[in-house]
Amino acid sequence: MKKCIVALLTLMLLSCQADRPYVNEPALLDNDPSVAFTGRAGINMMLFKDRFSTPIQNYTIYSSGEDPVYDASDWTLKGSYDGKTWVLLSEVNDHTFCARYQEKFCPIAKPSNYNQYILEARTATGDTLKIGSVQFLTNYVSNGWAAFACPEIDFTITEEGEGYRLYTTLVQDPEAYIQYHARKVARILYSSASEPMPKVEKINYNIYDYEGISEKSGQPPVITIRYSSRYIEQIGKESLYALNRETRGVLYHILTHAYQYEPRGIGTYETSQEYRACVQGMAFAVRAQTGLSNPNDRQTPGGHWLDGLHVTGFFLHWLTLNKNPETVRLFNQTVKNLAIWSFDSAMKSIFGPEVTIESLWAEYQMDINKQQLKENLLKTT
Asked: Is the dihedral of CA 202, 207, 213, 218 positive or negative?
């Protein structure tokens, strides 16, 4: 009899725990998808409260780095003023994440000054739920790029070695994955999907065994991108999350070369340093704007705006952070609009006729020198 009572009490306790929401779970709110929240089997309720002073406009859910079977497939988000009456704000059904650490952007149907939100989610199979992160956004982010013409993706593997295994562990749907990054590059370089841009109709994407990182060949409408399986294996030795950041960063960089305009009147990539600095600096700046710069690329004093890659790219990113958040988009527009392009004419077009490339570069150098001085002082204290 006592055993029956104990068993009944245990079942009741487990039932109560299953119905109890997780409250302000740190693993959900740390903005770090590499640290996964692990819930329960079935429907999970996650309550977020005492942290909202302005209306939430959008939110994102990230998949974890775990097996896709643990991903959220169906969920709702509700808002409340008092924790008793709840308003449905968002509902997603039958969603499949195309990769590990992948975001799903969700708009809020009826933004208001709710002080509590509850997310109810489950996996497709009712298995244990794992979520990389949940981010609530108070600024309105338009999701009006549905009209973007996603390119056809022809994904191939040249050699099925360790690099291939790591890539397929990271990316479950290469077509959707590459299309997601193509759309995001276009959103940085252009103001809307209807704005004229290079028409990329097809991308031949190949995981290939060679000494290098990634390279693009061809011109729109059809381009080819190769990604080195050796490089994948090299980065993957650190962690899957490190491979995630580098693979996305490399893809943002290389896709920029597909969607950016190329300067006119100054020679070619092979013959002009200014041409190379323009296209490579822009590609690096796009990658930096996504927050995925390679940690080995450091912003240091010195150099020249014509040095290209991270030197030019960090300069353009500094202008984005300190002068105009639309710098990269406007920079790309100067490449389209100026018959004879130069860095100085581009800066004048963006920031005004009184501005010179020399004055902006000098200001940039002064600022990063101050930053380095502060870093050095912190190291000595």
From this structure: negative
How high is the pLDDT of residue 139?
85
Res 217 pLDDT > 90: yes
Distance CA 331, CA 333 (A): 5
Parallel, antiparallel, or unpaired for β 222-228 and 202-208?
A: parallel
pLDDT of 296 reads 84
The answer for residues whose C-beta is within 8 angstroms of residue 196's C-beta and 6 or more apart is none
**What percent of the chain has a predicted confidence (pLDDT) above 70?**
93
Paired tokens of 104: 């799903």
3-state per-residue secondary structure call for the chain: CHHHHHHHHHHHHHHHHHHCCEECCHHHHCCCCCCCEECCCCCEEEEEECCCCCCCCEEEEECCCCCHHHCEEEEEEEEECCCCCCEEEEEECCCCCCECCCEEEEECCCCCCCCEEEEEEEECCCCCCEECEEEEECCCCCCCCCCCCCCEEEEEECCCCHHHHHHHHHECCHHHHHHHHHHHHHHHHCCCCCCCCCCCCEEEEEEECCCCCEEEEEECCEEEEEEEHHHHHHHHCCCHHHHHHHHHHHHHHHHHHHHCCCCCCCCCCCCCHHHHHHHHHHHHHHHHHCCCCCCCCCCCCCCCCCCCHHHHHHHHHHHHHHCCCCHHHHHHHHHHHCCCCCHHHHHHHHHCCCCCHHHHHHHHHHHHHHHHHHHHHHHHC
CATH number of 17-137: 2.60.120.260
Architecture of the CATH domain 145-259: 3-Layer(aba) Sandwich (3.40)
Q: Where exactly are the structural domains of the chain?
A: 17-137, 145-259, 265-381
